[in-house]
Amino acid sequence: MTETPKIVPWKTDEIIAATGGDLVAGTVDGVFDGVAIDSRNIAPHELFVAIVGEVHDGHTFVNQVLEKGVRGVLLEKDKAGDLMAGSHARRKLTIIAVNDTTWALGDLAAFNRNRFPLKVIALTGSNGKTSTRTMLTLVAEQRYETLSTMGNFNNQIGLPLTLLQLAETHALAVLELGMNKPGEIKRLAEICQPDIGMITNVAPAHLEGLGSIEGVLRAKGELLEGLNTNAKAILNADDPRVAGLEKNTPAEVLLFGLSEKADVRAGHIQEQGQGLSFSLVVPGATTDVFLATPGRFMVSNALAAAAAGYLLDIPLPEIKTGLEHFQPINGRMHIRNLKNGINIIDDAYNANPHSVKAALDTLQQVAPQHARIIVLGDMLELGQTSAALHHDVGRYAALAAPERLYLTGNFSGDMAQGARDGGLDADQIVIGSVQEIAADLITRGRDHDTILVKGSRGMRMERIVKELINTFGQNH
Question: Which of 170, 175, 191, 370 could cross-link with 106 by S-S, CB 3.0 to 4.6 Å?
Answer without folding.
Answer: 191
